[in-house]
Design a protein that fits this description.
This protein is of the alpha/beta class and about 350 residues long. The protein is built from 10 helices and 15 strands. The strands form 3 sheets. Strands 3, 4, 5, 6, 7, 14 and 15 form a 7-stranded mixed sheet that branches. Strands 10-9-8-11-12-13 form a 6-stranded parallel sheet, with helices on both faces. A two-stranded antiparallel ribbon has the order 1-2. Helix 5 links the parallel strand 9 and strand 10.
């Protein structure tokens, strides 16, 4: 089979197409013929780590979907022909997160990912995909969609009448927007692009703020909410946005802390968090149970993931470059097979 590995070179690191024997499933394993995979901002961080000498040779990416084509003798949950997607954390199936699950994150520092024509994982690391989604759409879900679901719905409790502030129009942002709109919440979206904001409005965003033309966007958000602030913030930016996110969280509000798009840096002043009796919810993706609950919601509400662009399997380097350019709206997908 063909697959990609991350390799160091004179320019840093790059995804390299190579070959390997077709893997055979063990007694509790399921082999899937991968049809599509998708990129996340995390994958740029992993590539940067390889450039620094961490994880050379790693198979990248956490997100993929396809069809089961072989199962081990003791497999009970799945069968040949089932349409499935991989879970981000191979070993977090349900219940509270445990630190030991971190090393099982696919395509990270310790565990190979899914950018291959066939992938073998334990049966507990796959979820069935509803018929409402094709493989390209299903491949967008394991990281970005589950992250938004876990932070905003499973733990954040977004519901009708709430007000959500979403930063940007990437994968997590748009899934958060779509879920909140489906539940009847008001959504305010930030972006530096009027064109991207128009796309967000088409998906149901109520209010739009261009932070390039309105750098004091926290004041604009407070004005939009009559000074009360928002009940939920999908915090994706990191140090350059965090203080403003704190400035707009309302009484009893919740900040789903997810992103590091502006890097890592000093912590903000948390005084407002206390005075507003607000909460910060730290989120790193979610469990298989979160994924399955989300898939049922997506199927019921007929939600379709937003795909920005689909790249061929031999153009993975171009897909990385497109994601790095940050001009996308929604998910960047790679067609593997099918």
């Amino acid at each position: 089979m063909k697959l990609y590995r991350l390799t160091r070179d004179a320019d840093g690191a790059r995804p390299t197409l190579t070959e390997a024997p077709l893997p055979e499933p063990g007694p509790h394993d399921v082999r899937v013929r991968i049809e599509a995979a998708s990129l996340n901002y995390r994958d740029l961080l992993v590539l940067g780590g390889v450039a620094q000498g961490a994880g050379d040779g790693r198979i990248p990416l956490s997100d993929a979907a396809g069809t089961v084509d072989a199962v081990g003798a003791n497999v009970q949950r799945l069968a040949v022909g089932d349409r499935v997607a991989a879970t981000f954390f191979r070993d977090w199936t349900d219940g509270p997160f445990q630190a030991r699950y971190m090393s099982s994150a696919l395509g990270g520092s310790a565990t190979d990912g899914v950018l291959a024509e066939h992938v073998v994982l334990p049966e507990h690391a796959w979820v069935r995909v509803p018929a409402t989604l094709d493989a390209l759409e299903a491949a967008t879900l394991p990281c970005a969609a589950v992250t938004a679901w876990h932070g905003l719905i499973a733990r954040g409790g977004v519901s009708a009448g709430d007000t959500l502030l979403v930063q940007g129009t990437g994968g997590v942002a748009l899934f958060g927007l779509q879920f909140a709109v489906a539940l009847g919440a008001r959504v305010i979206v930030l972006s530096s692009s009027d064109d991207k904001l128009a796309r967000a409005r088409a998906l149901g965003a109520t209010d739009l703020v261009n932070y390039r033309t309105t750098p004091d966007w926290d004041a604009a958000v407070l004005d939009l909410t009559g000074g009360h602030g928002v009940s939920h913030v999908l915090e994706l930016g990191g140090p350059q946005t965090y203080q403003r996110a704190l400035n707009v969280v309302g009484a009893g509000g919740k900040i789903a802390q997810i992103g590091v798009l502006t890097g890592f840096g000093p912590q903000p002043n948390l005084a407002r968090l206390q005075s507003m009796n607000a909460d910060i919810i730290g989120v790193t993706v979610g469990s298989r149970a979160h994924f399955e609950d989300m898939l049922a919601f997506i199927a019921e509400r007929q939600i379709r993931p937003v795909i920005d662009r689909v790249f061929a399997f031999d153009a993975v380097g171009d897909a990385y470059a497109h994601l790095r350019a940050a001009n996308h709206v929604g998910k960047v997908v790679i067609r593997v097979g099918g």
